[in-house]
Amino acid sequence: MRITVLTGAGISAESGIRTFRATDGLWEEHRIEDVATPEGFRRDPALVHRFYNQRRADAARARPNAAHRALARLAQRHELTLVTQNVDDLHERGGSAEVIHMHGSLLGALCAGCGHRWPAALVMRPPDPCPACGKALARPDIVWFGEIPYHMERIWKAVESAELFAAIGTSGLVYPAAGLAQHARRNGAHTIELNLAASAVSRDFAERRLGAATEVVPQWVDALCP
Questions:
Q1: What's phi and psi for 165, nearest 5 deg?
Q2: CATH for 18-61+105-142?
Protein backbone atom coordinates (compact mmCIF):
# COMPACT_ATOMS: atom_id res chain seq x y z
CA MET A 1 0.00 0.00 0.00
CA ARG A 2 1.19 3.52 -0.80
CA ILE A 3 1.10 5.52 2.43
CA THR A 4 2.04 9.15 3.05
CA VAL A 5 2.44 10.23 6.66
CA LEU A 6 2.77 13.79 7.91
CA THR A 7 4.07 14.25 11.45
CA GLY A 8 4.08 17.34 13.65
CA ALA A 9 5.24 18.42 17.06
CA GLY A 10 2.87 16.06 18.86
CA ILE A 11 4.87 12.98 17.89
CA SER A 12 8.02 14.33 19.56
CA ALA A 13 6.32 15.84 22.61
CA GLU A 14 6.53 12.58 24.56
CA SER A 15 10.27 12.56 23.90
CA GLY A 16 10.57 15.87 25.74
CA ILE A 17 10.54 18.25 22.75
CA ARG A 18 8.24 21.14 23.63
CA THR A 19 5.47 21.82 21.15
CA PHE A 20 5.06 25.21 19.52
CA ARG A 21 1.74 27.02 19.54
CA ALA A 22 1.49 30.54 18.11
CA THR A 23 -1.71 31.55 19.93
CA ASP A 24 0.10 33.97 22.25
CA GLY A 25 2.76 35.05 19.77
CA LEU A 26 5.52 33.62 21.96
CA TRP A 27 7.86 30.67 21.52
CA GLU A 28 9.54 29.67 24.79
CA GLU A 29 9.31 33.26 26.09
CA HIS A 30 10.52 34.79 22.82
CA ARG A 31 8.48 36.67 20.25
CA ILE A 32 8.11 34.67 17.06
CA GLU A 33 9.18 37.73 15.06
CA ASP A 34 12.48 37.79 16.93
CA VAL A 35 13.55 34.15 16.58
CA ALA A 36 11.64 32.65 13.66
CA THR A 37 11.79 35.17 10.83
CA PRO A 38 14.53 36.36 8.44
CA GLU A 39 13.96 39.90 9.74
CA GLY A 40 14.58 38.79 13.32
CA PHE A 41 17.84 37.15 12.26
CA ARG A 42 19.02 40.32 10.55
CA ARG A 43 18.18 42.39 13.65
CA ASP A 44 19.81 40.14 16.22
CA PRO A 45 21.64 37.07 14.91
CA ALA A 46 23.17 36.38 18.33
CA LEU A 47 19.73 35.97 19.90
CA VAL A 48 18.59 33.68 17.11
CA HIS A 49 21.68 31.51 17.39
CA ARG A 50 21.30 31.24 21.19
CA PHE A 51 17.69 30.20 20.71
CA TYR A 52 18.46 27.46 18.18
CA ASN A 53 21.57 26.31 20.02
CA GLN A 54 19.25 25.52 22.93
CA ARG A 55 16.76 23.77 20.62
CA ARG A 56 19.63 21.74 19.16
CA ALA A 57 20.84 20.75 22.63
CA ASP A 58 17.30 19.79 23.68
CA ALA A 59 16.87 17.63 20.58
CA ALA A 60 20.23 15.92 21.13
CA ARG A 61 19.16 14.92 24.65
CA ALA A 62 15.78 13.60 23.51
CA ARG A 63 15.24 9.98 22.58
CA PRO A 64 12.93 8.46 19.95
CA ASN A 65 9.69 7.09 21.35
CA ALA A 66 7.38 4.23 20.42
CA ALA A 67 5.59 6.30 17.78
CA HIS A 68 8.84 7.06 15.93
CA ARG A 69 9.84 3.41 16.05
CA ALA A 70 6.42 2.27 14.85
CA LEU A 71 6.68 4.39 11.70
CA ALA A 72 10.07 2.87 10.95
CA ARG A 73 8.38 -0.53 11.17
CA LEU A 74 5.60 0.63 8.86
CA ALA A 75 8.16 1.47 6.18
CA GLN A 76 9.38 -2.13 6.22
CA ARG A 77 5.95 -3.44 5.16
CA HIS A 78 4.51 -0.67 2.98
CA GLU A 79 5.58 1.98 0.47
CA LEU A 80 5.88 4.85 2.92
CA THR A 81 6.66 8.51 2.32
CA LEU A 82 7.37 10.11 5.69
CA VAL A 83 7.06 13.90 5.81
CA THR A 84 7.70 15.86 8.99
CA GLN A 85 7.20 19.43 10.10
CA ASN A 86 9.63 18.76 12.94
CA VAL A 87 13.23 19.95 12.86
CA ASP A 88 14.60 17.26 15.19
CA ASP A 89 16.11 13.98 13.98
CA LEU A 90 14.06 11.61 16.14
CA HIS A 91 12.53 9.85 13.14
CA GLU A 92 15.98 9.00 11.82
CA ARG A 93 17.21 7.86 15.21
CA GLY A 94 14.00 5.87 15.57
CA GLY A 95 14.94 3.82 12.50
CA SER A 96 13.39 5.67 9.55
CA ALA A 97 15.85 5.60 6.66
CA GLU A 98 14.29 8.41 4.63
CA VAL A 99 12.51 11.46 6.05
CA ILE A 100 11.39 14.60 4.21
CA HIS A 101 11.96 17.61 6.48
CA MET A 102 9.65 20.25 5.04
CA HIS A 103 10.66 22.84 7.66
CA GLY A 104 14.38 22.11 7.65
CA SER A 105 16.56 20.59 10.34
CA LEU A 106 18.45 21.68 13.43
CA LEU A 107 21.34 19.57 12.12
CA GLY A 108 21.80 21.83 9.12
CA ALA A 109 23.41 25.23 8.59
CA LEU A 110 22.57 27.59 5.75
CA CYS A 111 24.38 30.64 4.40
CA ALA A 112 22.00 33.57 4.27
CA GLY A 113 24.20 35.05 1.56
CA CYS A 114 25.04 32.40 -1.02
CA GLY A 115 22.62 29.61 0.02
CA HIS A 116 25.30 27.00 0.70
CA ARG A 117 24.33 24.24 3.16
CA TRP A 118 26.52 22.22 5.53
CA PRO A 119 26.20 20.23 8.79
CA ALA A 120 25.57 22.53 11.75
CA ALA A 121 27.85 22.60 14.77
CA LEU A 122 26.18 21.93 18.11
CA VAL A 123 26.81 25.61 18.90
CA MET A 124 26.54 28.19 16.13
CA ARG A 125 27.64 31.85 16.47
CA PRO A 126 27.29 35.01 14.33
CA PRO A 127 31.00 35.09 13.35
CA ASP A 128 30.85 31.56 11.88
CA PRO A 129 31.95 31.77 8.23
CA CYS A 130 30.24 30.04 5.36
CA PRO A 131 32.56 27.27 4.03
CA ALA A 132 31.70 28.29 0.46
CA CYS A 133 31.79 32.10 0.35
CA GLY A 134 33.53 32.88 3.64
CA LYS A 135 30.96 35.44 4.78
CA ALA A 136 29.73 35.44 8.38
CA LEU A 137 26.11 34.80 7.42
CA ALA A 138 25.56 31.31 8.83
CA ARG A 139 22.00 30.63 10.05
CA PRO A 140 20.12 27.49 11.06
CA ASP A 141 18.72 25.64 8.05
CA ILE A 142 15.17 26.13 9.36
CA VAL A 143 12.17 27.35 7.38
CA TRP A 144 11.02 30.48 9.17
CA PHE A 145 7.72 32.32 8.94
CA GLY A 146 7.36 33.93 5.54
CA GLU A 147 9.65 31.38 3.85
CA ILE A 148 8.62 28.56 1.52
CA PRO A 149 8.78 25.01 2.97
CA TYR A 150 11.25 22.61 1.41
CA HIS A 151 10.52 19.74 -1.02
CA MET A 152 6.92 20.81 -1.72
CA GLU A 153 6.80 19.40 -5.25
CA ARG A 154 7.89 15.99 -3.96
CA ILE A 155 5.43 16.19 -1.05
CA TRP A 156 2.46 17.07 -3.27
CA LYS A 157 3.26 14.17 -5.58
CA ALA A 158 3.45 11.75 -2.64
CA VAL A 159 0.11 13.00 -1.33
CA GLU A 160 -1.52 12.74 -4.76
CA SER A 161 -0.41 9.13 -5.23
CA ALA A 162 -1.17 7.94 -1.70
CA GLU A 163 -3.83 5.34 -1.02
CA LEU A 164 -3.69 6.25 2.66
CA PHE A 165 -2.77 9.62 4.17
CA ALA A 166 -2.16 10.02 7.90
CA ALA A 167 -1.41 13.12 9.93
CA ILE A 168 0.14 12.50 13.34
CA GLY A 169 0.52 15.10 16.07
CA THR A 170 -0.22 18.10 13.88
CA SER A 171 -2.14 21.21 14.91
CA GLY A 172 -3.56 22.01 11.48
CA LEU A 173 -2.62 25.66 11.97
CA VAL A 174 0.30 25.99 9.56
CA TYR A 175 -0.08 25.92 5.79
CA PRO A 176 0.69 24.37 3.39
CA ALA A 177 0.98 21.32 5.67
CA ALA A 178 -2.55 21.88 6.95
CA GLY A 179 -3.92 21.51 3.41
CA LEU A 180 -2.37 18.12 2.66
CA ALA A 181 -5.22 16.01 4.06
CA GLN A 182 -7.80 17.77 1.92
CA HIS A 183 -5.58 17.34 -1.14
CA ALA A 184 -5.13 13.62 -0.38
CA ARG A 185 -8.85 13.13 0.03
CA ARG A 186 -9.59 14.86 -3.29
CA ASN A 187 -7.21 12.40 -4.93
CA GLY A 188 -8.98 9.36 -3.51
CA ALA A 189 -6.89 8.53 -0.43
CA HIS A 190 -8.36 7.38 2.85
CA THR A 191 -7.40 10.00 5.42
CA ILE A 192 -6.81 9.49 9.13
CA GLU A 193 -5.81 11.82 11.93
CA LEU A 194 -3.91 10.50 14.94
CA ASN A 195 -3.66 13.22 17.53
CA LEU A 196 -3.96 14.08 21.19
CA ALA A 197 -6.98 16.24 20.32
CA ALA A 198 -8.82 17.09 17.11
CA SER A 199 -6.82 19.50 14.94
CA ALA A 200 -8.02 22.70 13.31
CA VAL A 201 -8.56 20.74 10.07
CA SER A 202 -10.09 17.65 11.64
CA ARG A 203 -13.04 17.86 9.23
CA ASP A 204 -10.68 16.97 6.36
CA PHE A 205 -10.15 13.46 7.73
CA ALA A 206 -12.41 10.48 7.19
CA GLU A 207 -11.21 8.86 10.41
CA ARG A 208 -9.54 9.98 13.62
CA ARG A 209 -7.97 8.28 16.60
CA LEU A 210 -7.34 10.47 19.61
CA GLY A 211 -4.77 9.78 22.30
CA ALA A 212 -1.07 9.93 23.06
CA ALA A 213 1.11 9.28 20.02
CA THR A 214 3.02 6.53 21.83
CA GLU A 215 -0.26 4.65 22.19
CA VAL A 216 -2.33 5.33 19.08
CA VAL A 217 0.47 5.22 16.49
CA PRO A 218 1.82 1.75 17.42
CA GLN A 219 -1.76 0.44 17.56
CA TRP A 220 -2.48 1.84 14.10
CA VAL A 221 0.75 0.40 12.68
CA ASP A 222 0.02 -2.99 14.23
CA ALA A 223 -3.28 -3.07 12.35
CA LEU A 224 -1.52 -2.27 9.07
CA CYS A 225 1.32 -4.73 9.68
CA PRO A 226 -0.27 -7.92 11.06
A1: -120, 130
A2: 3.30.1600.10
